[in-house]
């Protein structure tokens, strides 16, 4: 009888820059697995007969399949297996919340730490790029159908890739001067290097997809105008309209939305000023409002821009924070100060209109609200002032209203989102589909890709019948 397999209860740790080093640069923090570490981690997989991890993946990657390839030292087979379902493995391996999806339901995780599926996906994508072993998949013969994709973020790139492989003539229209959507303008270089995003975009372009930048759908051309040229349209323009707290003083100099702050730094290379002509205030004391990944990104960016002190001001406790634990821990290691149970109520400025302080209120947690998290309640008489010369509001986003305003008959929801069927992506307009953040509001990269894959399948079924 064969000996029982001994399973290491813990994941292989991810090598990364030390905190005192990384706060001085914008280089990627996580350094990735070596081939040895990757094979060791893959060997922890139980090869379940019913792999529920696949069900936990929004795009349905054959996780046991690619992990077994790694165990067999067949890295090319592993990345090929991933790309059957995912055109952005290097991106997803870095920024997807695997701990809430595939790894959350990993059977090994019931007793031990789950298999580090995201780290293994990242390894294979990076191995493919480093070795130059990128394979171009087989593409179906042209089917004479033309499809327009609005937006080159995760949803748009996914639909473009899926349809190009099926023989469609695909054109992506991007409003900004570089492709990638939120992957390019919203996620910092130290978490997702832009060279990796562009590498993934080039892969899709090599499938025959055309990309037009500086093209604002709704202004350069409307959806109606595009419908005269294309057989179908997919809207994946994301959620780029920032929310503010609507408190006094938000118009002061030194107050940013997270969108503006991160876009200036990421897309417009503000962190390289003056080599790049994008000024970004080097504040000494920065406050970031919010508790999600965008708040972590903003706070960690402020540190790297030279701030002496960076605070995250959050109205609930650490336990309720929606940010990934990995990003929260990275921020803590780097010296970000967390002001929990604290609510900003007013921004205070000097006679020149510059932010100098934030008036805050202490909170306590009451009963759970609709989100399932305990509701923050103000503590009477607990007001205090916090010194700050910059503030970043990172509390969420809505879709830009431009497409809705310029597309008659397209049903728009209460929060400005395009209304689309969850399973098919169909909108109220014939031969127009939508998916990703423009439908759901700001969510995860992989959930946008999952919606995009369902929309691509529906679009193909419609045009091929």
Question: Which labels suit this protein?
Answer:
single chain; 465 residues; alpha/beta; Fumarate Reductase Iron-sulfur Protein, Chain B, domain 2; FAD/NAD(P)-binding domain; 3 domains; five-stranded parallel beta sheet; 16 strands
Report on this structure:
With 465 residues, the chain is an alpha/beta fold. It has a five-stranded parallel beta sheet with strand order 3-2-1-4-16. A five-stranded parallel beta sheet has the order 6-14-7-8-9. Strands 10, 11, 12 and 13 form a four-stranded antiparallel beta sheet that branches. Helix 5 (75-83) packs across helix 7 and helix 13 runs parallel beside helix 14. The protein has 17 helices and 16 strands.
CATH topology of the largest domain, by name, is FAD/NAD(P)-binding domain
CATH class of the largest domain, named Alpha Beta
The tally of helices reads 17
Q: How many structural domains in the coordinates?
A: 3
CATH superfamily of the largest domain: FAD/NAD(P)-binding domain
pLDDT averaged over residues: 93
Structural class comes to alpha/beta
Helix content: 25-40%
Query: Could you tell me the radius of gyration in angstroms?
Result: 23 Å
Q: What overall form do the CA principal axes indicate?
A: globular
Strand order of the largest sheet: 3-2-1-4-16
Alpha-carbon distance between the termini? 55 Å
Largest sheet entry: 5 strands, parallel
Tell me the CATH architecture of the largest domain. Answer: 3-Layer(bba) Sandwich
Question: Any low-confidence stretches, pLDDT <50, length ≥5?
Answer: none
Sheet-strand content, in percent, reads 15-25%
Record field, number of beta strands? 16
């Amino acid at each position: 009888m064969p000996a029982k397999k001994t399973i290491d209860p813990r994941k292989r740790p991810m090598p990364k820059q030390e905190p005192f080093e990384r706060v001085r640069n914008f280089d990627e923090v996580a350094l990735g697995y070596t081939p040895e570490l990757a094979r060791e981690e893959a060997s922890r997989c139980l090869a379940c007969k019913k792999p529920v991890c696949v069900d936990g993946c929004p795009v349905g990657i054959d996780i046991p399949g690619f992990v077994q390839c790694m165990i067999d030292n067949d890295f090319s087979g592993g990345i090929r297996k991933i790309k059957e379902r995912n055109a952005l493995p290097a991106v997803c391996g870095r920024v997807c919340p695997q701990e809430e999806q595939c790894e959350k339901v990993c059977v090994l995780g019931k007793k031990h730490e789950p298999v580090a599926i995201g780290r293994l996906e990242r390894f294979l994508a990076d191995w493919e790029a480093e070795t130059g072993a990128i394979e171009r998949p087989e593409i179906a013969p042209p089917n004479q159908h033309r499809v327009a994709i609005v937006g080159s973020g995760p949803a748009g790139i996914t639909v473009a890739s899926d349809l190009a492989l099926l023989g469609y003539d695909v054109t992506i229209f991007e409003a900004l001067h570089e492709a990638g959507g939120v992957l390019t303008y919203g996620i910092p270089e130290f978490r997702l290097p832009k060279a990796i995003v562009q590498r993934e975009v080039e892969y899709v372009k090599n499938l025959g997809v055309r990309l037009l930048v500086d093209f604002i759908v709704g202004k350069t051309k409307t959806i109606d105008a595009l419908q005269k040229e294309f057989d179908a349209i997919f809207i994946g323009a994301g959620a780029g309209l920032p929310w503010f707290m609507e408190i006094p003083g938000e118009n002061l100099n030194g107050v940013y939305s997270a969108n503006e702050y991160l876009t200036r730094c990421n897309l417009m290379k503000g962190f390289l000023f003056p080599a790049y002509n994008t000024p970004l205030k080097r504040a000494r004391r920065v406050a970031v409002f919010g508790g999600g990944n965008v708040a972590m990104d903003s706070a960690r960016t402020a540190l790297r821009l030279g701030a002496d002190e960076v605070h995250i001001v959050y109205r609930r406790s650490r336990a309720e924070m929606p940010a990934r634990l990995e990003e929260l821990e990275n921020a803590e290691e780097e010296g970000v100060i967390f002001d929990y149970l604290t609510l900003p109520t007013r921004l205070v400025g000097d006679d020149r209109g510059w932010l100098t302080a934030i008036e805050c209120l202490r909170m306590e947690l009451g009963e759970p609200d609709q989100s399932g998290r305990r509701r923050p309640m103000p503590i009477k008489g607990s007001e205090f002032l916090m010194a700050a010369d910059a503030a970043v509001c990172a509390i969420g986003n809505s879709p830009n209203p431009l497409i809705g305003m310029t597309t008659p008959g397209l049903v728009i929801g209460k929060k400005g989102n395009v209304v689309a069927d969850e399973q098919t992506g169909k909108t109220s307009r014939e031969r127009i589909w939508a998916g990703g953040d423009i439908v759901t509001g700001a969510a995860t990269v992989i959930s946008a890709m999952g919606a995009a894959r369902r929309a691509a399948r529906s679009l193909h079924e419609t045009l091929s019948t």
